[in-house]
């Protein structure tokens, strides 16, 4: 049986709600989505401009939810002892999250940055799990509702908690940090991501530095020493009163310093010096950017009182996240090609890094390196130049063909040498059949784009070519039938 997360009475007290009965029930999870309700969950229906979760309260209870927090009592559930009445369910979720933080006894680590947040969060979870009960944000629940939801799911007996904080506008991370109140804060990097909403990259640095606002003087800030905006981040941390500041990168003065990186097709071997301790370890994710972020992970482990050597060894168990580097061999007539799924999101710096990963991929006989790219969103007036500027990384990586979709990717397509231009189409739906017709055994195919570009359609179309999958599913699949709804404003 799952551990009890909250009692009904605790829920009512946390959100200043009125229980419609004796609240003599317990919950083992918290959900805001009736489609994913598990038995024993607490359901919190939220209201939005185009939806109201209260319409699904009865369904959630019928599916096994132990209780629900409601602002409006659904018809037919008047007096139902499983309900707690509040004025506003969003505020109730925030209150429950704050109480989740108040009762926590373990060390809390918060992660933000223009790119690499989710990967760093997952690496922290793996590294710390080897040393004690560790809770981490699921997926990318890093915004104004994802953070309190994660805190509400935080078991009080956890030794460590890892929370991802995201934003696409100034002023968003500060309130999240004050809710999480981290003991340790990591900023992975500062880059021109969401630059459409900022006057400059310096303003993005200031927005990321809001992560320090929820910390007290005993906290530890971990900063990217190689980043152009390091001095700005350092000043922000000191202004907030933080004195425990550590750095990571290749810089000779970094507390977590990369001494050597050996790249391989599907992993990397790292030699690093972590606050005076030399360690060598394997990360099963290719790309130097993963190696650099692992230094921040190990510094955070030490700051949290963990064992650095054990944590470094545990990183060998790290696995790629869906849409963020997962690989699979797709069996087609005459052999197989390698599919590298980077379809979750994209920015100039992450696409350039993905070009390097594609360049290191192993090929079969007569195999080619193929990039399939969708528009990078929220770059504003910088979009044409930033898309065109990606031509050089792909040429240097030895990419054979680049397929593009979207109006902004036209700038990259036109900037490429003629012999590397695969095709350009208006959108991913029209690009998918062109790519599936072009791939051959031995190829390495990397797919990447912002969430709103719906590059998962291309990934699904390529997966549908798999003969092994077809053998197990004689009815076949429709390309794109699993593609999720795009979120143009993903907080990163």
TrEMBL record:
The reaction(s) this protein catalyses: D-alanyl-D-alanine + UDP-N-acetyl-alpha-D-muramoyl-L-alanyl-gamma-D-glutamyl-meso-2,6-diaminopimelate + ATP = UDP-N-acetyl-alpha-D-muramoyl-L-alanyl-gamma-D-glutamyl-meso-2,6-diaminopimeloyl-D-alanyl-D-alanine + ADP + phosphate + H(+)
Residues of the Mur ligase C-terminal domain: 335-450
Compartment(s): Cytoplasm
EC main group: ligase
GO molecular function: ATP binding; UDP-N-acetylmuramoyl-tripeptide-D-alanyl-D-alanine ligase activity; UDP-N-acetylmuramoylalanyl-D-glutamyl-2,6-diaminopimelate-D-alanyl-D-alanine ligase activity
Domain Mur ligase central: residue ranges: 111-300
Domain Mur ligase N-terminal catalytic: 27-96
GO biological process: cell division; cell wall organization; peptidoglycan biosynthetic process; regulation of cell shape
Chief location category: cytoplasm
Domain of life: Bacteria
Composition bias type Polar residues, residue spans: 470-480
Region Disordered, annotated ranges: 467-492
Protein name: UDP-N-acetylmuramoyl-tripeptide--D-alanyl-D-alanine ligase
Organism encoding this protein: Niveispirillum cyanobacteriorum
Lineage: Bacteria, Pseudomonadati, Pseudomonadota, Alphaproteobacteria, Rhodospirillales
């Amino acid at each position: 049986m799952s551990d009890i997360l909250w009692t009904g009475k605790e829920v009512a007290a946390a959100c200043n709600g009125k229980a419609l009965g004796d609240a003599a029930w317990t919950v083992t999870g918290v959900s805001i989505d009736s489609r994913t309700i598990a038995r024993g969950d607490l359901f919190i229906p939220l209201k939005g401009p185009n939806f109201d979760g209260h319409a699904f309260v009865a369904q959630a209870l019928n599916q096994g939810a132990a209780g629900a927090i409601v602002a409006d009592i659904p018809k037919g559930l008047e007096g139902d002892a499983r309900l707690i009445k509040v004025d506003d369910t969003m505020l109730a979720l925030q209150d429950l999250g704050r109480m989740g933080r108040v009762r926590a006894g373990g060390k809390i680590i918060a992660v933000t940055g223009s790119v690499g947040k989710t990967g760093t969060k997952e690496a922290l979870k793996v590294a710390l799990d080897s040393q004690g009960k560790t809770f981490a944000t699921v997926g990318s629940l890093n915004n104004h509702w994802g953070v309190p939801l994660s805190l509400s799911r935080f078991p009080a007996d956890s030794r460590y908690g890892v929370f991802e904080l995201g934003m696409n506008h100034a002023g968003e991370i500060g309130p999240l940090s004050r809710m999480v109140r981290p003991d340790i804060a990591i900023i992975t990097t500062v880059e021109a991501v969401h630059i459409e909403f900022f006057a400059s990259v310096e303003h993005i640095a200031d927005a990321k530095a809001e992560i320090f606002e929820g910390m007290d003087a005993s906290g530890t800030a971990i900063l990217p020493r190689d980043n152009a905006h390091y001095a700005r981040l350092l000043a922000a941390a000191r202004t907030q009163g933080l004195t425990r500041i550590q750095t990571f990168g290749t810089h000779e003065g970094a507390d977590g310093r990369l001494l050597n990186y050996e790249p391989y097709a599907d992993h990397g071997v790292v030699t690093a010096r972590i606050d005076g301790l030399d360690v060598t370890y394997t990360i099963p994710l290719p790309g130097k950017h993963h190696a650099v972020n692992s230094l921040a992970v190990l510094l955070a482990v030490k700051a949290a009182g963990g064992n650095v050597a054990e944590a470094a060894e545990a990183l060998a168990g790290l696995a790629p996240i869906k849409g963020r580097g997962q690989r699979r061999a797709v069996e087609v007539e005459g052999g197989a090609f390698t599919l590298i799924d980077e379809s979750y999101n994209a920015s100039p710096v992450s696409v350039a890094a993905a070009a390097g990963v594609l360049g290191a991929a192993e090929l079969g006989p007569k195999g080619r390196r193929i990039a399939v790219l969708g528009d990078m969103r929220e770059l504003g007036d910088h979009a044409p130049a930033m898309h065109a500027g990606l031509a050089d990384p792909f040429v240097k990586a030895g990419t054979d063909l680049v397929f593009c979709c979207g109006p902004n990717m036209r700038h990259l397509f036109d900037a490429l040498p003629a012999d590397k231009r695969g095709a350009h189409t208006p959108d991913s739906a029209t690009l998918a059949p062109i790519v599936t017709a072009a791939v051959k055994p031995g190829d390495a195919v990397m797919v990447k784009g912002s969430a709103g570009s719906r590059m998962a359609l291309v990934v699904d179309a390529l997966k549908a070519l798999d003969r092994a999958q077809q053998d197990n599913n004689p009815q076949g699949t429709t390309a794109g039938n699993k593609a999720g709804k795009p979120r143009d404003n993903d907080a990163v």
